[in-house]
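Suppose you are handed a protein chain with no further information: no name, no annotation, nothing but its sequence. What can you learn? This example shows the usual starting point.
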Amino acid sequence: MTDTDSSTLVPLHRLRFDEPGPPRLGELPGGAPAWLISRYADVRQVLSDPRFGRSRLYAADAPALSDVPDLVNNPDLMFNQDGSDHLRLRRTLRRAFTPRAVARWRPWIAAIVEQLLDRLEDRPQPADVVEEFTLPLPVAVISRLMGLDASAHGRLRHWSEHAFSDGSHSGEEVESVLKEFSAFGAELLTERRRAPGDDLISSLVRAADDEGGLPEAQLVSLVCGLVVGGHDSTMTMLGNALLYLLGERPESWPRIGADEEAAGRAADRLIHLVPLGDDRGTARHAAEDTEVGGVVIPAGAVVLADCGAANRDPAVFPRHTRDDLFAPLEAPTLSFGAGAHYCLGAWLARTELQIALHRLSARFPGLRLTEPADAVLWRTGTTSRSPLRLGVRW
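A reasonable first move is to predict its three-dimensional structure. Written in structure tokens, the prediction is:
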């Protein structure tokens, strides 16, 4: 992780998106051609249509999506599987992340939040809300879910920085760290097979045994993806949400603490409008000629679906409600994707953000930043981005 030149970056809620329009030809970062999709209906079609898959992106003759190895572009990752292979992996986890399952977790998630707020309240002011809250909360939640002990906490960030590297780490460094991380994931699976518990990995092992025939490499990638993905995205969302709320929407802060339902609607809006990073599209491969938005995408083409632009499509999300934090969304957000690859952890992420914002505001209704948003240094080096530090007083 580095904060070199991070002060020149703009807050993610201020990113500018082109006006959504018909599909058009553009380029991947390496210069290979790709079709850019930006309208809400078109992006939703691409993400939901099985003719646009992920696995062919990793064929031997496919253009490289990244200059260095990373977890996101590992062909064994569930996100990069299609059809029956993807469905078999997804079935091993689907029951664990239903709204009903997440609802059962709310009491202990809230208890973790309150413990961290007790600790924050005892800190001298100004305090760093990243160090005291936005980072330890999702680490504690994913550790509780997966049965990880405290010895793994310090390594989670190290693994995440390399698993989601933006290319600023050397290929050799990333490869070495991911090898170490995979060994950790394999060891966890072995331990849970030997001594199962009531954690998520034990459930995964039982479901995989019931499913039968799942390659071990895919299970290891699944565990590793859960470990780092389960805390990185929530940490990023929470840090960026606080920067926006406290820096530019302080009038909304007391209501979030006074009304938990309002906090939920605000969480939905924040997830919808504040991206996790600077990337502008999730890639798919066209298996056959397919019409999207009146344009025929040829078989074999790479397609980049720009969910950020689609989430701002004025044909679906009117401009007059875009900045209303408490207005229900007019259509499902694409921040978690759509279709077969819709994020399984979406309900957990939304629940964590709602509880965290509600309880933090209720405990500290006068919370305020100690420096302007433009002065914030950023956590960089990964495909996600959030404040490196965030000084607050109350």
